[in-house]
Amino acid sequence: MLTLINTNRMVPPIAPIGLEYVAEACGRAGIEVSILDLALCEEPAKAIREFFSRRNPSLIGLSFRNVDDCFWPSAEWFVPGLAQLVRDIRSLSDAPIVLGGVGFSVFARQVVEFTVADFGVRGDGEAATVSLYRQIENGRDFHSVPGLIWRQGGQTCVNEPAWPADFSLPVRRNMVDNRTYFARGGQCGFETKRGCNRLCLYCADPLSKGSIPRSRKPAEIADEIESLL
Ligand code: SF4
Q1: Which of 194, 205, 209, 212 to mutate to test the pocket of ligand 1 (most atoms within 8 A of CB)?
Q2: CB-based contacts of 158: which residues, under 8 Å, 6+ apart?
Q3: Helix or strand or coil: residue 46?
């Protein structure tokens, strides 16, 4: 089983779109997926304890959307909290932990080293997570997993990210409680493209999704929106 955990608890809440795409892609590949959405939990620590008392996953993925709150008066930095979460989960499960997400991908290697997580995936996570899960199950050839940050002989290894020009995303969006996000005044998004060739100084997208624009097929996007209605 793959467990995916949304770690972003900023408000207004932003539905974890990347986590949901990864969940659907893994489900389509025949991997059993369970999701713990900490943004919708009143007591996250209690929710984590209860969750792992009932499940024994083979791999745990933590989505990390924001490294900080982008607000100079508070200047809150979320990486120490992520490191604490990794330690808390390790006390409850022996499964390896992989980090991913847009914020994570900006400083992928540094965040893996700071948090001492087992793995990280920079860039598109759908095929990479399926590949990592398969390699953990049998093989352990981590060179072949796109965008993977991993360790070998005490060294941190960094694979080239997967930013395929021709990409397709799942269109079914019912693994995350998107309606509750909407009801709480948050956002429920969908991606029409990934990557950007502009150089806006403040923007993380080219670092996380590549510097070449990649468009999805319009019919696929329409099907996805329909599944959200
Ligand atoms: S995605 Fe980012 S880099 Fe591209 S135009 Fe928008 S703000 Fe600028």
Answers
A1: 205
A2: 108, 109, 122, 148, 149
A3: helix
- Atom 8 in ligand 1: which residue has the minimum CA distance? 200
**11-67 pLDDT per residue, tens:** 899 999 999 999 999 999 999 999 999 999 999 999 999 999 999 999 999 999 999
Q: Which ipTM was obtained for this model?
A: 0.98
Ligand 1 center from residue 78 Cα (angstroms):
23
Q: Is 205 in the pocket of ligand 1 (CB under 6 A)?
A: yes
- Domains observed in the chain: 1-229 (3.40.50.280)
196 lines ligand 1 (CB under 6 A): yes
The torsion region of residue 171 among left (phi > 0), alpha (psi -120 to 50) and beta comes to: alpha
* Contact by Cβ (8 Å): 143, 193: no
Note the pLDDT tens digit of each residue in 207-223. Answer: 999 999 999 999 999 99
**Which of 197, 202, 203 has most ligand 1 atoms within 8 Å of its beta carbon, as the pocket-test mutant?**
203
The 10s digit of each residue's pLDDT in 109-128 is 999 999 999 999 999 999 99
